[in-house]
Amino acid sequence: MLNLTLNKTTEQKLNNYVSIYKGNYDKMFNDILTYRSMQLNKAIKAMKLDFAYFEKKYAMTSEKFYQLFESGKLGDENNDFFQWSGEYETFKDYQKEIRHL
User: Fold this and answer.
1) Measuring CA to CA, how many Å separate 30 from each of 5, 23, 51, 99?
2) CA separation for the pair 77, 51 (Å, rounded)
3) In this predicted model, what pLDDT tens digit does every residue of 34-70 receive, in sequence order?
4) Phi-psi region of 93 (alpha: psi -120 to 50; beta: other; left: phi over 0)
5) How far is the CA of 15 from the CAs of 24, 49, 100, in angstroms?
6) In angstroms, what CA-CA distances link 89 with 2, 9, 52, 78, 96?
7) How many CA atoms does the CB half-sphere of 38 hold within 13 Å?
8) How many Å apart are CA 12 and CA 5, to the nearest integer?
9) Inside any domain, residue 19
10) Euclidean distance between CA atoms 53 and 96, whole angstroms
């Protein structure tokens, strides 16, 4: 059993939305979770394309790059490295979220 505490505005929005599902909360939440999973997988696919570009350009895997970058061995003058590290962190967060879905 799930017990939620919502503010009045959020509760009203949820009640309006669930009316589309004719009170079937189970289907509604499953649809929401399925949609989120699809969005995460789509974003991960795009990130992997970026990783392939960076991996080819710098001749190292994203995992290796991130280890070196986090340990300070690559310096901080390269804008690609900041983009790559940020995307890599987001990628790991998204993978974790998908595992929980």
Assistant:
1) 20, 13, 31, 15
2) 19
3) 999 999 999 999 999 999 999 999 999 999 999 999 9
4) alpha
5) 11, 40, 25
6) 31, 33, 16, 17, 11
7) 6
8) 12
9) no
10) 23
Q: Is 12 contained in some domain?
A: no
Encoded tokens for 16 = 């309006």
Question: Is 68 within 8 Å of 61 (Cβ atoms)?
Answer: no
Rg of the Cα atoms in the chain: 20
Domain count along the chain: 1
| Residue 96, in any domain of the structure | yes
Q: Is 33 inside any structural domain?
A: no
Does residue 75 have a pLDDT over 90? no
- Give the C-alpha separation, 81 to 71, whole Å: 13
| Single-letter code of the amino acid located at 101 | L
User: Range of 97's domain?
Assistant: 44-101
Q: Is 85 left (phi over 0), alpha (psi -120 to 50) or beta?
A: alpha
Instruction: Name the strand (E) or helix (H) holding 17.
Output: helix 8-20
